[in-house]
Structure formats: structure tokens, C-alpha cells
Automatic annotation (TrEMBL):
<dbReference type="GO" id="GO:0003677">
    <property type="term" value="F:DNA binding"/>
</dbReference>
<keyword id="KW-0804">Transcription</keyword>
<dbReference type="GO" id="GO:0003700">
    <property type="term" value="F:DNA-binding transcription factor activity"/>
</dbReference>
<dbReference type="InterPro" id="IPR000847">
    <property type="entry name" value="LysR_HTH_N"/>
</dbReference>
<dbReference type="InterPro" id="IPR036388">
    <property type="entry name" value="WH-like_DNA-bd_sf"/>
</dbReference>
<dbReference type="Pfam" id="PF03466">
    <property type="entry name" value="LysR_substrate"/>
</dbReference>
<protein>
    <submittedName>
        <fullName>HTH-type transcriptional regulator CynR</fullName>
    </submittedName>
</protein>
<feature type="domain" description="HTH lysR-type">
    <location>
        <begin position="1"/>
        <end position="57"/>
    </location>
</feature>
<keyword id="KW-0805">Transcription regulation</keyword>
<dbReference type="Pfam" id="PF00126">
    <property type="entry name" value="HTH_1"/>
</dbReference>
<comment type="similarity">
    <text>Belongs to the LysR transcriptional regulatory family.</text>
</comment>
<dbReference type="GO" id="GO:0005829">
    <property type="term" value="C:cytosol"/>
</dbReference>
<dbReference type="InterPro" id="IPR005119">
    <property type="entry name" value="LysR_subst-bd"/>
</dbReference>
<dbReference type="InterPro" id="IPR036390">
    <property type="entry name" value="WH_DNA-bd_sf"/>
</dbReference>
<keyword id="KW-0238">DNA-binding</keyword>
<dbReference type="InterPro" id="IPR050950">
    <property type="entry name" value="HTH-type_LysR_regulators"/>
</dbReference>
Length: 170
């Protein structure tokens, strides 16, 4: 059983016509029949009555209902994966000193959250020494504050002339 066969089955169950379904799917009628036969072999039961006209069997109706759920869930998974790949969902852990957290972040975060509404942002406000420890341990993505040490595991990016840096782990 594979998703392609399930999709073909759902299309045939909706149309109840091999030729029309094959044309709709841009495949040969023979290819469609092979997918349906594969499913019937897999489940060891006919999924369609073929005469006098194409109709779903009770097993076909049950499979159709299940396929709708499976394919809907697969679409949801695909959407979630695309969102993750495109950085539309996820989390961001920001650290800031008390001053920067109270005065800078309120100026910056609203625009960020408008642009990336599905990103879960967590803010931690601590002393710079503590923030550097959290960065090195992987508990923060970055922090905005004053450069405390000269840790070779951290990268310091100047943001202003008053020695304020954005600091991230390598």
C-alpha cells in the first residue's frame, strides 16, 4: 500500500468511472487498474463491484473513509514540514539584560511577531554572565547585552557604539 495508490483509489471512488479517473489523473487506464488491483490484493477483498456499473463494495466504502482521513493527515504533515523548512514555525529563545529587555525588546518584538506569527518566542532576562552560560549550554539562541567575557565559543556582533552586542554560540 502506498499513498499514490490510495489517492488513485479515492479519485476512482469519487468518479466511479475508470476512463474519466485515468484522464483526470493523467495516467493510463491500465496503470489505474494496476493500482486498484494492488490494493485489492493487499486487502484480499474486492473494493469495487464492476458490473453492471462501477460501485464501491462495503470494504471499498470503509477504505474510502479511512483514505480520506489518511490523506488529510498526510496533507497536514506536508504543510507542517513546509512551514518548518520555510521557518514559519518553531521557537526562538532570546536573552536580554534587564535594561535591554525592558526598553529594546518592546520596540523590536512586535514587528518580528507580526512577520513570524507561528514562532514561539521566549524571553529570558538575566545578567550578561548568566546569559553567556545559557548560550554555551544551548538554552538560548542569542542574547542582547553587554559583552562580559571573551569566550571563544561565542560570537559578538556590535549593535551600538556603547558596547552592546548581539551574542550567539557558534
Amino acid at each position: 500500500m502506498d499513498l499514490t495508490s490510495l489517492r488513485y483509489f479515492v479519485a476512482l471512488a469519487r468518479n466511479l468511472h475508470f476512463t474519466k479517473t485515468a484522464q483526470e489523473l493523467y495516467i493510463s487506464q491500465q496503470n489505474l487498474s494496476q493500482h486498484i488491483n494492488k490494493l485489492e490484493t493487499h486487502y484480499r477483498t474486492p473494493l469495487f463491484y464492476r458490473k453492471p456499473k462501477l460501485q464501491l463494495t462495503p470494504a471499498g466504502k470503509a477504505l474510502y473513509d479511512s483514505c480520506i482521513k489518511i490523506l488529510t493527515e498526510e496533507d497536514n504533515i506536508s504543510r507542517q514540514m513546509n512551514d518548518i523548512i520555510q521557518n514559519n514555525v518553531g521557537s526562538l529563545s532570546i536573552g536580554a539584560s534587564q535594561y535591554r529587555g525592558q526598553y529594546w525588546l518592546p520596540l523590536i518584538l512586535p514587528d518580528y511577531l507580526k512577520r513570524w506569527p507561528n514562532i514561539n518566542v521566549q524571553v529570558t532576562m538575566e545578567r550578561s554572565e548568566k546569559m553567556e552560560q545559557l548560550l554555551v549550554s544551548g538554552d538560548l539562541d542569542f542574547f542582547v547585552g553587554i559583552k562580559h567575557g571573551d569566550d571563544s565559543l561565542l560570537r559578538f556582533i556590535p549593535l551600538m557604539n556603547d558596547k552592546v552586542y548581539m551574542i550567539s554560540a557558534y
